[in-house]
UniProtKB/TrEMBL annotation:
UniProt record, GO biological process: response to host immune response
Pfam families: Pentapeptide_2
Naturally occurring in which organism (per UniProt): Mycobacterium persicum
Organism lineage: Bacteria, Bacillati, Actinomycetota, Actinomycetes, Mycobacteriales
Descriptive protein name: PPE family protein
InterPro entries: Mycobac_pentapep
Length: 864
């Protein structure tokens, strides 16, 4: 009985143990802040769990009142990661939900968007079935009210153009009448004579040898010397006709076929639960897409309810604009998170266990926490750091806007512990100082180096007291040198009054530089008061070529810019049009990022307000390449228009038939070998013997035969008797076939790029931009990063700048310009015109000047 007791049977407050009565410590446990907490690391009153922020939470990491569950934001939740009141389920956004992942209240079912749904995946009111869109449906997958059955009230649409079967046929008649004649002339073989053949050397067996001759012999035709003739008779020798000569032989080739029918669907929207849903499983609601089932409006992924949530796994979200899984509430990023605009730091698949508002980290509860011991509290927009009051500060505990550093009071400071604006350094009291410990305005060291501990304004050097001194340790006005006390002294250690001006070519009082017009200028070529830089027009500019006051940078038009080429005030970045921009090339206010058009963007190339991502068009977007508001992921809010239609398989068939019957008739003549002769063949045989007597030898030749054989008359002979040809070629061809073509899918997809109607090469935000990409704003056509309206050159901001890169302001032509309607390079102010090439620095400031190295108004000649 009591508060913050740990143990059993205690009566009192803060007691530890059993059966205790009375008052113990204000907190038991460890790491608690508040009263009567008995857990660990609680902030609040009477929390008995761990890591809670609020009152009487008994669970862990809750933000609110009397949550018994874990990671809840709200009151009386007993479940996990709910945002709302008295949810006994998990991951709900709303109140009194006993189911899980509902957006709404009093839902016993799961993943509903609405009220009093007993079923699951419903969008609407009091549906007891599942996946219904409407109210009081007891069936499933219905659209409408009071349906009792399933799949009632569904609207589908189908319209198709059907082309009937396209028939095809043909019939080809080919007459066949092919006469073939072959003429062959008679073959004549010339007569042949075989000459006489002699022989000798045959052994007679009695000691001699046999010699002799055979021939000659001749083969010839009918008469001696005639050729031998092979006759083919009358010509043509061969006469054949393919087909009937009267033309009655015909080859008929016929075929039939068909293509189709062809159905071309134009509209095919099947009846399904919900309206415009494109999820892989049935969903209720409107325009949900992605994997799985869902309810609500325009969610992507599985098991979401609510509006514009994106789930990255099977587990979904409830609420609005959450990105991740197992989340409830508004615009959270991570896993197992409740509340508003919290960010987990362990990825999308590991539980972050964060509840509350705008906290960053893991195992956190409360408001604006950045880890266990730090805070992310800032009063203002687009601050990076903690404890800032203002806009677009980068650092901690700044009071003002666009400071880069810590503990600054003012705006546009780069450094720490400055009181004032536009200081580049630390512990300065005043504005436009470069260096540390200066009190006053526009104090700087030589050549824009750091000055130390000046008191006054427009001093160049350190430890000066006064105005317009050049050197160190001077007291007074317009002194040049060191350790002088007085006015207009030149040298070191002087006391008294010197000339009204030191230096040369000065007009006015207490100028210590050269060619100045005004009072207490310590630089060269200035027009105004207390300028310590060169070619400035205005008051206490420590930089060069500025038009305005307290500018420490180069070629600014405005007040207290520590950056360069800015049009506006308190810009610590470069080439901005607007004020309080720590980043570069911004058009607007309080932008720590680069190339933004709008207000308080910490990312780059955004068009809108307080976007921490890149290339976003809208407001409060922490993702990238998105259009809209509060998006946490990338490529969200982009319009996709897709249309496709599938022509089903198209049947086809054919059948080709050709019966062929072709007669072949004709004659082949007789072939004869006519009469030919073989002449008689003479034959002579002799015997030679050698006889020796008493040393005398002689040869005796004896003729044994001397006669002839033959001749012969041969032929005529028939080589081929006359032949009649009478044949018929018969063959039937039948070739059938069938099949299908397709299916064929046609259509188009339009995927919107970041922004609206941009045509840049790389992504841009804004409207109607063209060129290279990385742009923000409207109607820009630059080849690179640019912000503003209708700029034609890269790295520029403002309106209608062209000619070269690095411009801010309005209607400037050239490069590195600020202000309005200037022509040239390195110019600030308005209506100034350089007389050198656009690539050369003119160093002009002021109004209406023509030439180079000019300040002031309406100078039209160079002042040497």
């Amino acid at each position: 009985i009591g508060f913050g007791n740990t143990g059993n049977g205690n009566i009192g407050i803060g007691l530890t143990g059993d059966g205790q009565t009375g008052f113990g410590a204000l907190n038991s446990g460890s790491g608690n802040i508040g009263l009567f907490n008995s857990g660990t690391d609680n902030i609040g009153i009477a929390n008995s769990g761990d890591g809670n922020w609020g009152i009487a939470n008994s669970g862990n990491h809750n933000t609110g009142l009397a949550n018994a569950g874990n990671t809840n934001t709200g009151a009386f939740n007993t479940g996990l990661a709910n945002t709302g009141i008295a949810n006994t389920g998990n991951y709900n956004t709303g109140s009194y939900n006993t189911g899980n992942t509902n957006t709404g209240s009093f839902n016993p079912g799961n993943t509903n968007t609405g009220l009093f749904n007993l079923g699951s995946y419903n969008t609407g009111l009091a549906n007891t079935g599942n996946i219904n869109t409407g109210a009081f449906n007891t069936g499933n997958m219905d659209n409408g009210w009071w349906w009792r059955g399933d799949s009632q009230g569904l609207i589908g649409a189908y319209y198709a153009i059907t082309v009937p079967e396209i028939p095809a046929f043909f019939n080809v008649a080919i007459p066949v009448d092919i006469p073939i004649t072959i003429s062959i002339t008679d073959i004549e073989i010339n007569p042949v004579t075989i000459p006489k053949i002699s022989f000798s050397g045959l052994d007679d067996g009695i000691g001699g040898k046999v010699i002799g001759s055979i021939g000659p012999a001749s083969v010839y035709g009918a008469q001696t010397g005639d050729p031998i003739v092979i006759s083919f008779g009358e010509q043509p020798a061969v006469a054949i006709n393919v087909g009937n000569p009267d033309g009655s032989t015909v080859i008929n080739i016929s075929g039939t076929g068909g293509l189709g029918p062809i159905s071309i669907p134009i509209v095919d929207v099947p009846a399904a639960p919900g309206f415009g849903t494109a999820t892989t499983s049935p969903s209720s609601g409107f325009f949900n897409a992605g994997a799985g089932s869902a309810s609500g409006f325009a969610n992507f992924g599985a098991n979401n309810s609510g509006l514009w949530n994106v789930s990255n796994a099977v587990a979904g979200n409830s609420g609005y604009l959450n990105y991740g899984s197992l989340q409830s509430g508004l615009a959270n990023f991570g896993n197992t998170i409740s509340g508003l605009y919290n960010t987990g730091t362990v990825g999308l698949t590991s539980p972050a266990n964060v509840s509350g508002i705008a906290s960053i980290g893991t195992d956190l509860a409360g408001v604006l926490r950045d880890g266990p011991t730090a805070t992310a509290f800032n009063a203002g927009l687009a601050n990076i750091g903690a404890g800032n009051v203002g806009f677009a500060n980068i650092g901690d505990v700044n009071l003002g806007s666009a400071n880069i550093g810590d503990y600054n009071l003012g705006s546009g400071n780069i450094g720490d512990l400055n009181v004032g604006s536009g200081n580049l350094g630390g512990t300065n009291l005043g504005s436009g100082n470069i260096g540390n410990g200066n009190i006053g305005f526009a104090n700087t060291g030589p050549s824009l180096t750091a000055a130390v501990r000046n008191v006054g304004f427009g001093n160049t050097g350190s430890h000066n007291v006064g105005a317009g001194n050049t050197g160190d340790g001077n007291i007074g006005f317009g002194n040049t040198g060191n350790g002088n006390i007085g006015i207009g002294l030149t040298g070191d250690g002087q006391t008294g009054f010197g000339a009204l001006n030191s230096g040369s070519g000065n007009t006015g009082l207490f100028n210590s530089g050269t060619d100045n017009i005004g009072i207490a200028n310590s630089g060269d070529g200035n027009w105004g008061i207390a300028n310590s830089g060169n070619h400035n027009t205005g008051l206490a500019n420590a930089g060069n070529t500025n038009t305005g006051a307290f500018n420490a940078g180069l070629a600014n038009t405005g007040i207290a810019n520590t950056g360069s080429y800015n049009t506006g005030s308190y810009n610590t970045g470069n080439t901005n049009t607007g004020s309080f921009n720590p980043g570069n090339t911004n058009t607007g206010l309080f932008n720590p990022g680069d190339a933004n058009t709008g207000l308080a963007n910490t990312g780059n190339s955004n068009t809108g307000v307080a976007n921490s991502g890149n290339v976003d068009t809208g407001a409060f977007i922490s993702g990238n390449y998105s259009n809209g508001f509060l998006w946490r992921g990338d490529y969200q809010g982009l319009i996709t228009i897709s249309y496709s239609s599938t022509i089903p398989e198209i049947p086809w068939h054919y059948d080709v038939n050709a019966p062929i019957e072709i007669p072949i008739s004709g004659n082949v003549n007789e072939i004869t070998l006519e009469l030919f002769h073989i002449s008689s063949i003479p034959i002579k045989v002799q015997l030679q013997q050698t006889i020796c007597f008493l040393g005398y030898c002689t040869t005796i030749t004896t003729t044994l035969y001397d006669g002839s054989v033959g001749g012969w008359a041969l032929g005529p002979y028939t080589l081929l008797a006359p032949t009649t040809v009478a044949e018929t070629i018969a063959q039937t061809f039948d070739l059938p076939g069938s099949g299908t073509l397709g299916p064929y899918t046609f259509g188009f997809t339009y995927q919107q790029s970041p922004g609206f109607f941009n045509s840049t090469t790389d992504p841009s935000s804004g409207f109607f931009n063209s060129g290279g990409g990385g742009a923000s704003g409207l109607f820009n056509s630059a080849p690179g990063a640019v912000s503003g309206l209708a700029n034609a050159v890269a790295n520029s901001s403002g309106l209608g700048n062209a000619g070269g890169t690095g411009n801010s302001g309005y209607l400037n032509y050239g490069g590195l310009e600020s202000g309005f309607a200037n022509l040239g390079n390195t110019i600030s102010g308005s209506f100034n015109t350089s007389t050198v090439d656009l690539t050369q620095a003119a160093f002009d400031s002021g109004i209406g000047n023509v030439g180079t190295n000019l300040s002031g108004v309406f100078n039209d000649v160079f002042v040497p």
